[in-house]
Amino acid sequence: MKYRVLIDANDEKGLVHKVSSVFFNYDLNILSNSEFVDKESNKFFMRSVVDGDVDKNELSNAIAEVLPKNSSVKVIEPKKKNIIIMATKELHALGDILVRHEAGELEANILGVVSNYDALEPFVSKFNIPYITVSHEGLERAEHETKIIEAINSFEDVDYIVLAKYMRILTPRFVEAFEDKIINIHHSFLPAFIGANPYKQAYDRGVKIIGATAHFVNNNLDEGPIIAQDTIHVNHAHSWRDMQKNGRDVEKVVLSRALKLALEDRIFIYANRTVIF
Amino acid sequence: MKYRVLIDANDEKGLVHKVSSVFFNYDLNILSNSEFVDKESNKFFMRSVVDGDVDKNELSNAIAEVLPKNSSVKVIEPKKKNIIIMATKELHALGDILVRHEAGELEANILGVVSNYDALEPFVSKFNIPYITVSHEGLERAEHETKIIEAINSFEDVDYIVLAKYMRILTPRFVEAFEDKIINIHHSFLPAFIGANPYKQAYDRGVKIIGATAHFVNNNLDEGPIIAQDTIHVNHAHSWRDMQKNGRDVEKVVLSRALKLALEDRIFIYANRTVIF
Amino acid sequence: MKYRVLIDANDEKGLVHKVSSVFFNYDLNILSNSEFVDKESNKFFMRSVVDGDVDKNELSNAIAEVLPKNSSVKVIEPKKKNIIIMATKELHALGDILVRHEAGELEANILGVVSNYDALEPFVSKFNIPYITVSHEGLERAEHETKIIEAINSFEDVDYIVLAKYMRILTPRFVEAFEDKIINIHHSFLPAFIGANPYKQAYDRGVKIIGATAHFVNNNLDEGPIIAQDTIHVNHAHSWRDMQKNGRDVEKVVLSRALKLALEDRIFIYANRTVIF
Amino acid sequence: MKYRVLIDANDEKGLVHKVSSVFFNYDLNILSNSEFVDKESNKFFMRSVVDGDVDKNELSNAIAEVLPKNSSVKVIEPKKKNIIIMATKELHALGDILVRHEAGELEANILGVVSNYDALEPFVSKFNIPYITVSHEGLERAEHETKIIEAINSFEDVDYIVLAKYMRILTPRFVEAFEDKIINIHHSFLPAFIGANPYKQAYDRGVKIIGATAHFVNNNLDEGPIIAQDTIHVNHAHSWRDMQKNGRDVEKVVLSRALKLALEDRIFIYANRTVIF
């Protein structure tokens, strides 16, 4: 049996030794191993992939026993996670995820797509993935969000909600309901150009580089822990619409990269930052 | 004779034709030619390098005659420009410029280095470049700046002032005195992390990319027209001091790149943006 | 009427003037204009986008008249070009093109997909695009290629053939039949790792960067004029299969970028190189 | 006391456990820890930085005892390493190292510079670093190299020889005399453009990207284990001399990066590859 072991603990001398002792005692093979200690906050992070014959809960308990109190241990059996994608009208980021899914690149089941428009339904339906349109027209934000939550809850065991250019602001109620589960792509190099139409903002500021940021949404829309970022060069000849077009290539790659990291249990969230192994 | 011709005009039909007619009539060879029209503001920019036997002023007047009123024409004979470098205590950006100068990479005479500390004097004196320390200790900002301006004005025909990690804020008085002549390197990807200690800010925000921005200083410190930017990837294992160390490599490369563009008369400033050929 | 004007001529004094005179005489508005002179070979390249009321052939003839003999002038009315995609078993590059097409990002009609396997048919058929399987099993290379050419010729007015990871070597006969029309993505940074399994070669050499190259196929498979290249960093922890997985993201982006350049008539082919405006 | 512990062993179950037990028994604090297992060859690599009160040799022996036979253990006290720089006529790479040294960025003493020309002596002498010119004029390659080796051997305890654009081919005799100690910067993205004038080769091939490669020289000049690589974009407007100029910025950054990794004992050499922590 192969397991991913994720440990998040207060640091103290001997943690690697103690955890590796447990692996050794259970005769487990360590396939890969990464650790990081944040000196400033005295926090220890470890991700190991181990292989061997042991019960998942037994292993988890054995590790917990050698760790300081208040530590977190997760022993995860690698399997496909369930994701829901939210989008508005733009196809590129959603399309990239669907093609990767089709190509077997993602450890994921796509349960469905939820959108405030029906614009992407013809595309999504090609892939036999349920598409739920929840129009915001004529609805208060709270009402609309209630319906969105209902749509999401119509699926079971949702591991991640991927905002693939979902262009509506989410309320704290929504965000709290899916803590550490919402991954957003923001179409700028955060924290530059927070808010609406970042490409227009970037153009007006005369930047020579634009970027995209994938992050968890745990609070305000553009302020959660960053998972991945990338940038491309632009020049004076690019109008803001050109920047937007070119930016889409970065957006889709960064979002898909972040999603993969999440699906492979490589991300620790901590102090509004991420540790990524 | 080789000339760089820089034209900045309101756009109208036939400008390329009219300007190239002048070149043709003077039997000039066009070595390179770039144009850009900003549709939004109806502005036309052109930079040509021409070769031939013509008087500089005559050429300039002939071009001005075919352009709309209020156009700007510069006919520049390529030669070394005079620069002053300002720095505080960090060596990397200043050192990079001095080594490039030594290697003959820059079309520049370095008139002198002005600093608020004497920390870099031993290094600069190796290169037989005057070093003027203007300590800010015990001085009001205005008093200090008056002395800095005096130091700069002790040199003649200054074309550019390069802020190679000069860590003091400049007042509008200073900036206005050297309009379009001050090039600064800001140690972040502007407009993210404006202000003090951007690496600490970047670390706290948990970014996965850091950058540097070279820009003209025409107003507030971090808000002038951007000339060049670049970025590098960082990760959770980088403390803010690591980011600072790695960031220096980007800072020095971006500043030197911007300086070269300025020395080669490749930059138009316009609406707080730059057009770069 | 909007036209793209592409000129390829032996350089001589006054070409810009002469061509812009023609535009001026026809009262055309120049929307964008790029020139390049290759000093070494004395060649002049120009691409203009002009807007105005003129007959295409008349404009073409008027320009040809002012150019040296043996020059090439193309006046192109922007419209969707017809492309055929060839693939083998990998989905990522083909999928990226199909999604971009669906999103309206490409100035192209996709006439069909031709493959030596039926593996990608289920995917392609979702998009109502004809899929022709031409198995190479039991066939000599020449026989197989004859059938491939028949499949391609079953479509009309083919502008470009895009090899989206088509993993069979093409013979000179094929290549000559579609000169300057075949765009290939090679899964390495050419000219490194020419030939089979470049990721394995890259791994064996211990490189720290991998790349992809989009190029025209005018002769030997990996030796035509390069259109676009890009690279990503890898490290010791990447097996060659990891490199292959990560490399796919570069491959698809580079191929799509090259295809766009071709569709927008931005590429001149010359001396086994490309000039790209 | 702080130590860097470098382990290179055949992999077997429990190695992390066994080594961390030693650290634990000596009451050492693990400041950072990286491991990598190369499955294909069954090799285990580990680099730990530990802090505590223990004798260096005692620690080394204690670790060796728990490892399989034929393992390599190095316990290194961090201190400045002694380097010699070899150059020919180009200043940029050498200059970058000297400025970094001056800025305190390098854990190194620069013992001297050895060159086949005196061109760089005026620059190097500014820094009070010995400069030895060993002209190759009128000498057979073997004779010249004997003199170079004598010049190098006039310094004591040389840890690394840095070829900062030393443009002469080294013989196997030289290379064997300084195994795993010679770091070279090759002015191309290896293995593309091996041999003379890679920028000319790159230009002729019409590439859209150029690069630089820092590597150990253990055999043929361009074939040793790669430490670091980077690339930049170029276009049709770049002559090969422009590529050369722009390439210098990459060369110097990549060489300095590789040198730092070596000075910080972060590199394992293995099967003509490097593992870098």
TrEMBL record, chains A, B, C, D:
Keyword Hydrolase tagged: yes
Active-site annotation: 222
Residue ranges of coiled coil: none
A biological process term (GO) from this entry: 'de novo' IMP biosynthetic process
Keywords: Hydrolase, One-carbon metabolism, Purine biosynthesis
Family annotation (PROSITE patterns): ACT
Protein known as: Formyltetrahydrofolate deformylase
Organism: Sulfurimonas marina
NCBIfam families tied to this protein: PRK06027.1, PurU
Enzyme class: hydrolase
Function noted in UniProt: Catalyzes the hydrolysis of 10-formyltetrahydrofolate (formyl-FH4) to formate and tetrahydrofolate (FH4).
Reaction it catalyzes: (6R)-10-formyltetrahydrofolate + H2O = (6S)-5,6,7,8-tetrahydrofolate + formate + H(+)
The EC number(s) this enzyme carries: 3.5.1.10
Lineage of producing organism: Bacteria, Pseudomonadati, Campylobacterota, Epsilonproteobacteria, Campylobacterales
Pathway(s) per entry: Purine metabolism; IMP biosynthesis via de novo pathway; formate from 10-formyl-5,6,7,8-tetrahydrofolate: step 1/1
Matching InterPro entries: ACT-like_dom_sf (IPR045865), ACT_dom (IPR002912), Formyl_transf_N (IPR002376), Formyl_transf_N_sf (IPR036477), PurU (IPR004810), PurU_ACT (IPR044074)
Protein family according to the UniProt entry: Belongs to the PurU family.
GO molecular function: formyltetrahydrofolate deformylase activity
Domain annotation ACT: ranges: 4-81
Keyword Hydrolase: yes
Gene of this entry: purU
